[in-house]
């Protein structure tokens, strides 16, 4: 029973970190699809410049 409690605590720690990472990744994913046109980076890059 103690082992299960310890594993649950350990499972919650990485899970919490994963959630934080997911939130950060969500922002990155939002930029990834917009930056997906890497084939034409000169177009978006020129527009941003």
From TrEMBL:
Q: Where is the composition biased (Basic and acidic residues)?
A: 7-23, 31-49
Domain of life according to the entry? Bacteria
Annotated segments matching region Disordered: 1-49
Protein name, UniProt field: Uncharacterized protein
Classification lineage: Bacteria, Pseudomonadati, Pseudomonadota, Gammaproteobacteria, Moraxellales
